[in-house]
Amino acid sequence: MRRLYSGVHALASRDGALIALGAFLAGSAAYIPHAWPLAILGLVPIMHAAIRSTLTRIRAALFSFVFIGTSLGAFWGTIPLLWLGIDSWVASAFVVFLQWSLIVLPFAALMTANLLLFARVASYTHPITSVIFGASLFVLTEYAQMWLYAVIMHGPGIFMGADFSAHMAGYGIAASPFIALAKLGGIFMLSWVAYALSIGLAFMLRRQTQWVILTSTAVLLGTLFMFSALIGSAQDASQLVAASVSIDSHGNTIPPHRKISDVMMLLNPLQDAHPDLGLLVFPESLELLATSTGLTYEWKSSDSRFTIVDSIIEWRANVGTKRSAFYSPRDALWRYADKTFLAPPREYTPYIMARSATVNAISRRLSVVEHPEPAVMRGMTIGGSICLESMSPRHSRKLALKGADILTNGSALGWFNESRWVQRKVSTMNRVRAVETDRYFLVATDSAPAEIIAPSGRIIARTDFGVTGTAVATVGLRDTLTPYVLLGERVLFVPALLMFVSWMYVRSARHVPTQSANRSGTSA
Question: 79, 366, 385, 396: which could form a disulfide with 389 (CB 3.0–4.6 Å)?
Answer without folding.
Answer: 385
